[in-house]
Structure formats: C-alpha cells, structure tokens
Amino acid sequence: MSNKSILIVGAGFSGAIIGRQLAEQGHKVRIIERRAHIAGNCFDERDGATDVMVHVYGPHIFHTDNQRVWEYVNRYGHMMPYVNRVKATVNGQVFSLPINLHTINQFFKTTCSPDEARRLIEEKGDKSISDPQTFEEQALKFIGRELYEAFFKGYTIKQWGMQPSELPASILKRLPVRFNYDDNYFNHKYQGMPRDGYTKMVEQILAHENISVELNTEFDRQEAGDYDHVFYSGPLDAFYGYRHGRLGYRTLDFEKFIYDGDYQGCAVMNYGSVDVPYTRITEHKYFSPWEKHEGSVCYKEYSRACGEDDIPYYPIRQVGEMALLEKYLSLAEQESAVTFVGRLGTYRYLDMDVTIDEALKTADAYLASLADDSKMPVFVVNAR
Ligand SMILES: Cc1cc2nc3c(=O)[nH]c(=O)nc-3n(C[C@H](O)[C@H](O)[C@H](O)COP(=O)(O)OP(=O)(O)OC[C@H]3O[C@@H](n4cnc5c(N)ncnc54)[C@H](O)[C@@H]3O)c2cc1C
C-alpha cells in the first residue's frame, strides 16, 4: 500500500485523531486550522491572573461507556477522577440535578422513600395526555406541571429560544427522574478530566513525524485536488459556500469574571427561571478539584441564535434545518475524495467520546478502503 497524501481541515478531536491514526500507518498528513490554536471547542488554557484551567468554549466533562475511547484518552492524557454534580437555583432555592430523591423531597417539602416518591410523581403526572406530541406534553405527562415549570420550561426557552410546546416529544425520551440520592449527572461507566487539559491531550495526539499542523489557515476548496483524500471537520454548509442557505445553530456568549475566593462552591449552577438571562454559571476551578487556587474564574453562559460571524455550537435540527441539511447531504454524496466528519461536518451534537469513537472508525474505514481498493465513504456515520 503506497503512502497517501492527506489534508485534514480542523485540529479538533476529529481532525487530530484521524490524522494520528493515518500518520501511524505511514501516510503524510497536513492539518490546517483556521483558529490560532488546536483542540477545537475543547480548547482550554490557564488563566493568567489565577492560574485556573479555563475551558474557553464552555465546560467539557469527559464521560463514556466506550472501552476503546477510554483507553485512547488515557494513552494521550492523564485522566483524573471527576464526578459532575450539577445544582440549580430555582425560585430562590438551590436544588440538586438531575431531579433525584433529594430534589423531590426538597421541592415538595416531603420525606418520601423511593416508593413513596414514585407514587407522588405518578400522581403529579398529567393523565389527560395519552399521546404526547411535544416536549411540554411529554414533560407534563411524566413529572407534572410543578417540576416541569421549575426545572425544564424556563431553561429550555433560554437554551433553545423556543417554547417547549414547539419542540418534539422525542427530546425527553425517558422519565428524567431518579428515585434515589444519586446526583452523578452522567450514567456512564467512565468519567474524568485530563490533568493537564484537553489542549495538551490534542497536542500529544498531533505529535507525530508524519503530521504537520498549520494554524490560522483557512481551507480553500481549490486545494482539495492536490491530495489523495480530504477529511473535513468544518461546517458542511460552509464547504458549499452556503449556496442553499445556512444551517441553523445556537451560539453561546460567555461573560467571564474573576472572583477573589470561592464564588458558588460547585462547578455548575443552572438557573431555571426566564427572569435570569443566563442559563448557568460555571466555576472552572471546580473542574480540576485536585488543584488548589485562591482566585476563581467563572463564566455566565447565555444562549442565542447563531449569526454569520458567531461560533456555531448547538445544531438545531428542527424540520426546516433537516430539509436544508438534505440538500447539502445530496451535494456531499457526489464527492469522490472527501469525507465529512465531526460535529460540524455532520451537523450533529456529539459528545467528545462519540467524536473520538467516530474519528477512530473513520480512520479504520479509510485504511480498510485502501486495503481492499474500495471507495472511501463521504460519511462514515448517518448524518440524517
Ligand atoms: C458548550 C459545549 C459544551 C460541551 N461540553 C461537553 C462535555 O461536557 N462533554 C463532552 O463529551 N462533550 C462536550 N461538548 C462537545 C465537544 O465540544 C465536541 O464533541 C467536540 O468539540 C467535537 O470535536 P470536532 O473536532 O468534531 O469539532 P471542533 O472541536 O469544533 O473542531 C473543528 C475545528 O475545525 C476548524 N475549522 C472549521 N472550519 C474550518 C476551515 N474552513 N478551515 C480551517 N479550519 C476550520 C474549527 O476552527 C475547529 O477548531 C460540548 C460542546 C459544546 C458546544
């Protein structure tokens, strides 16, 4: 098998991992990144004033059930134990999330056992809704109006800029309540934070003699023909010059502030009320609980519609966007030497573990296509 010349657009987890896997098989990889740094949205750096590790594009907690992915991140980083415990300020009180027995007992001023709480929540559920169509109906059926309004309604309106009655029921697939005191936000087997940060981890992934990385470098489609294959982790619609219009995203604004001491005593505090303009406050030193810092760096997080010059964060994927996506997928499916990858290339929200898994599978697929001389797919995953 001859060595191939590969162009990768984007130095986030998707681009870096595909690059590394191919470089290790002897292929020459050039990675271009429009930003001034690697690691994409997982970029973190130490704050100059406090030395706290700051997750610049919003907090990132690593969690997975995937053994291959867990071994991969442990090969390139030193993972420290971390359990995400989220709090919520609602109606002048602080509660524990996700809604658990503590939340229920505090909220309803009860001392319910698990079985009693189960019965209570069942009673609260709206039995007149037999076939819920919207997020709101689903929530009302599952948990009733009081918990829905306190913990879901306002937060959803702020996060998505839409009424829960306009969102599909599928968003809330399962009963979002635990009938015990488990307040671990995630259910995955593995959870942790990289001791030296995600940027360092990506730096280690990129450290290979067959990889060159160029920052502050914009992709130019004319260049694609100079390579045997292109892996593109930028926005799918941008690849086609937005010719059918822009895929809708939500963007985030982070209002950073420094506090001399301990601001809120936890990593994440949600704000459920629409009267508070931000969705949450994150205190970054709590993401590295093994470190000690006097000062603190916090982010107030605001969500809004993504404009042309904003960073696209969360794909909206409602009916209108899906119709537009279909047009771009049809265009993309005609490509012969390009594979679209990652959260922007496939227009999906992806947690890091899914991103890493898909990047590894994409590299596997490319190597297999070389081995049996078959065509490399334009999408290794289903983006629909
Ligand atoms: C607010 C927020 C919080 C999150 N929190 C978590 C979390 O707690 N846990 C978790 O598991 N996941 C989390 N994620 C998901 C995580 O950010 C993604 O899984 C990950 O960033 C995806 O990596 P990627 O390489 O596909 O994309 P990105 O990280 O976006 O990397 C793509 C790169 O391509 C570059 N690029 C784009 N277009 C071009 C171009 N034309 N030319 C050159 N370069 C280009 C971009 O600058 C970018 O650096 C969160 C996401 C968000 C938005």
Automatic annotation (TrEMBL):
The keyword tRNA processing does not apply. InterPro entries: UDP-GALP_mutase, UDP-GalPyranose_mutase_C. Its cofactor is FAD. Keywords: FAD, Flavoprotein, Isomerase. GO terms for cellular component: cytosol. Residues 150-349 form the UDP-galactopyranose mutase C-terminal domain. It holds the Pfam family NAD_binding_8. One of its GO terms (molecular function) is flavin adenine dinucleotide binding. Belongs to the UDP-galactopyranose/dTDP-fucopyranose mutase family. This is UDP-galactopyranose mutase. It comes from Enterobacillus tribolii. The lineage of its organism: Bacteria, Pseudomonadati, Pseudomonadota, Gammaproteobacteria, Enterobacterales.
